[in-house]
Amino acid sequence: xxxxxxxxxxxxxxxxxxxxxxxxGGPRTVPEGVKARVLATAADLGYxxxxxxxxxxxGKTSTFGIVPPGTSxxxxxxxxxxxxxxxxxxAADEVDHDVLIFTxxxxxxxxxxxxxxxxxRVDGLIFLAPPKGTQIFAHPELTKVPHVMTNCWLDCSxxxxxxxxxxxxxxxxxxxxxxxxxxxxxxxxxxxxxxxxQRHAAFMEFMTDAQLPIRAEWIKDGDFTPAGGYTAAYxxxxxxxxxxxxxxxxxxMAVGFVRAAAELKISVPDQISVVGFxxxxxxxxxxxxxxxxxxxxxEMGRAAVLALSALISGLPVRNQTFSTRLIVRASASRPSEDxxxxx
Amino acid sequence: xxxxxxxxxxxxxxxxxxxxxxxxGGPRTVPEGVKARVLATAADLGYxxxxxxxxxxxGKTSTFGIVPPGTSxxxxxxxxxxxxxxxxxxAADEVDHDVLIFTxxxxxxxxxxxxxxxxxRVDGLIFLAPPKGTQIFAHPELTKVPHVMTNCWLDCSxxxxxxxxxxxxxxxxxxxxxxxxxxxxxxxxxxxxxxxxQRHAAFMEFMTDAQLPIRAEWIKDGDFTPAGGYTAAYxxxxxxxxxxxxxxxxxxMAVGFVRAAAELKISVPDQISVVGFxxxxxxxxxxxxxxxxxxxxxEMGRAAVLALSALISGLPVRNQTFSTRLIVRASASRPSEDxxxxx
DNA sequence: CTGAAAGCGCTAACAT
DNA sequence: ATGTTAGCGCTTTCAG
Lengths: 343, 343
Fold this sequence. Notes:
The structure is a homodimer of 343-residue chains. Chain A is of the alpha/beta class and 343 residues long. The first copy, chain A, folds into 3 domains: 5-58, 434 Repressor (Amino-terminal Domain); 63-163 and 297-322, 3-Layer(aba) Sandwich (Rossmann fold); 165-296, Rossmann fold, CATH 3.40.50. The first copy, chain A, has helices at 5-12, 16-24, 32-45, 51-58, 79-94, 110-117, 165-179, 194-209, 226-237, 251-263, 297-312, and strands spanning 63-67, 98-101, 124-128, 147-150, 160-163, 184-188, 219-221, 245-248, 273-278, 291-294, 320-322, 325-327. A 6-stranded parallel β-sheet of chain A has the order 2-1-3-4-5-11, with helices on one face. In chain A, helix 5 packs across helix 11 and helix 9 (226-237) crosses helix 10. The longest helix of chain A is centred in the N-terminal third of the chain and has 16 residues, at 79-94. The first copy, chain A, starts with a helix and ends in a 16-residue tail after the last strand. At the A-B interface, helix 4, helix 5, strand 2, helix 6 and helix 9 of A face helix 4, helix 5, strand 2, helix 6 and helix 9 of B. Chain A binds a DNA duplex (16 and 16 nucleotides) through helix 2 and helix 4.
């Protein structure tokens, strides 16, 4: 039987309220002597506060809820989730909160899911890259719990933490153009996610504005994964005519691309330049190291915690858009003269 | 104001116990008509069960607690954590549990940490690769909550989920020897973790038993990271005499090794063979793809959940050791005649 | 078959 | 300065 404040009170012949105040250091003041004795017997009895009971009366839990990206729990295997989660954990740690990951978020499961997130275990929720078509944000009951989201732009009032995908893709492409590239292909992915959609659209827009050729056979779906990028790269690189550069909409695809190129003995960047997106750990681990647009995912995770904390405190919270930054590494260079083509 | 069972009871002029039984489908049976009306008004009122209250009386929370690897929260950034967590999440999902990640586990912080894990929010705990010297398992109060651990061999009664590091390293080295290698180096790492220690020790033992040369300058600390592996590889590969093969005690280091080799224009596997450990996502994403000993981390995460569930149910739980399996890819081959040296 | 009520452990308003 | 007590929302024993 675990000790409770009642036990401490009984032992010391004082009231539970005094014990509570002594233990919590307030709001009521307790004489030093009494406080010391309370602490001592608490230690003696092996007393451990029960946070369920405390939460029930205070309405606060000191835990943040997280909803992993996508509808599938498998998304938890992505570097994206890993890095954002890491930012969330370290920020949560700093404010003495723990983090509850909700598992049951699936299409058609909305009501049970809502039951879960409203059941009192968390003070608020962070949705990580929720899937595009989800109905969850339309659920009237969801407003009962404070929530923010990352990497998703919805026309609703949920505070969002995003990175500027459009500027990121644009800057990456500008860099390639400045290097002298005109024939630029793209590996896109995950068109059910806002990041996927926006990066794809930004590519199209830039190429159109810059009056550069958009060739369908140079634009492939790489699924945001190394394996997808590898397959897409193979089908792209085995064509008669290939671009001098490829924009990969995330680093995992860029890694897959570079591997395919190596197998095909196409040198990166001598014969084809590659630019990635995210600055994921893989990008700096492979040969050649991948030039990429850094998305500050860890900071975004931290920002999500801050925004959620503010929201919970009743403070106003605005959307935040983080800037991307070009990280120049080894996978992109000037196109060599003999690979250049002219339309 | 959220609706409670009291509200439902009041509306229908029945008792809260009937409402509770209707909602839960037992243990007491409730006439269909009443049950239907209870469910209807529950929906009407937007009733959501409060799990804190429920947990307080039942003592069950439907949530598992996780303690990330190492003492530093930063360990959450490792592929190890990511993959095991993924296994845990999917297994937890299947048994309708959520997962609470505890943040405050640090040396010297034991007592606050114990407060946290004993505060009633979880039914049990999974320690992921706890640091070697931790005092936490000696804490008498920890026995109050069921717990298991992964990737850690301690001489205590905590049920452990491990992989057979010794056999794994041995099989990897056997494979290299069968290919014809005798001059074998090693990149080890994290000697504060059991996995790190055991793999290091297994290498030494195998080499001794097989009467193969152990050369200190071929044995480097690569910190289990790509960057560490890269640095270690540089210092290893820029020596006058280099081995024909290198055992990397995890795949991240192998990836770093391969990158360094590429930069130094040392061909893998033609000039030097590399074998990794874990079969982490990176291993199959780089060029050349890394031959590795697969450690079934996702299954181990799932097994941890199963073991913990059993423990919580009061069932006996034994240690489990998972076998590793050689995954032959492209980074290891027979040594070429001209790289072979003879002592 | 159903209702009343105790109680899980805690906080805080309300006494004194 | 301290004690008493009413809940928080729920489950379940005990009465009827």
